[in-house]
Specification:
Blueprint (H helix, E strand, L loop, with lengths): L4 E5 L2 H10 L6 E5 L2 H10 L7 E6 H7 L8 E4 L6 H20 L2 E3 L2 E4 L4 E4 L2 E4 L2 H13 L5 H7 L9 H19 L6 E3 L2 E3 L3
Parallel strand pairs: 1-2, 1-3, 3-4
Antiparallel strand pairs: 5-6, 6-7, 7-8, 9-10
Length: 199
């Protein structure tokens, strides 16, 4: 998943505090002084605000209601605010977003639900292991054939001392499960230069 982000729009009262404590966050923080700059970024690239919360004051709130999901906007209505309460609210929203995003990952004609570890297509569903989920997501994100030794290091976290046929056996079993459940032997393709999930 992509890293989560907090975009702060023109709330100078928070800037100094956030700068001082940002190392304790599990998300990135971005500042915008001008509303038009943030709106332009959103209009140019919808993925820019994926996995994000936009922190705005009450004056700017209405400008973003049509630009993004309501749950992505957190409005500061009055000061003073308790910073710990604010951080708890932001973290709770990011956790909800992350859970929701992981419940519906579209891959070809399939939907992958990381939370329940299920791959679905039409009325069929296949329960997967965590390692199988990791493999599918890694292959999906690469968009090009991935060699076995790369999967071995990046997904299985095994060193070079493990024989590559162990990883190949895991992928063979995963492909067989998908074939048996969905009658699809092309979801994970074996190419000369590695494995790929073609979109």
């Amino acid at each position: 998943m992509h890293s989560q982000k907090l975009h702060i729009l023109n709330i100078p009262e928070l800037d100094k505090i956030i700068i001082e404590i940002k190392d304790y966050f599990n998300f990135e923080v971005f500042y915008f002084n001008e509303k038009k700059d943030l709106i332009k970024k959103i209009d140019e690239d919808k993925k820019f605000i994926a996995n994000s919360i936009i922190l705005v004051n009450q004056i700017d709130f209405s400008s973003f209601k049509s630009k993004t999901y309501k749950k992505q906007i957190h409005c500061i209505t009055k000061f003073p605010i308790k910073i710990l309460n604010l951080m708890d609210q932001i973290n709770a929203r990011l956790i909800q977003q992350n859970y929701s995003a992981q419940s519906n990952i579209n891959i070809n004609k399939y939907i992958l639900d990381i939370n329940s570890r299920i791959l679905r297509k039409s009325d069929n569903a296949l329960k997967l292991t965590e390692r199988e989920i990791d493999t599918i997501i890694f292959l999906k994100n690469e968009n090009k054939p991935v060699k076995v030794d790369v999967l071995q290091k990046k997904v299985w976290k095994y060193g070079e001392d493990l024989e590559t046929h162990t990883v190949e056996t895991h992928i063979y079993r995963l492909r067989k499960k998908i074939k048996n459940t969905f009658d699809d032997d092309s979801f994970i393709q074996s190419k000369k230069n590695g494995y790929i999930i073609s979109e």
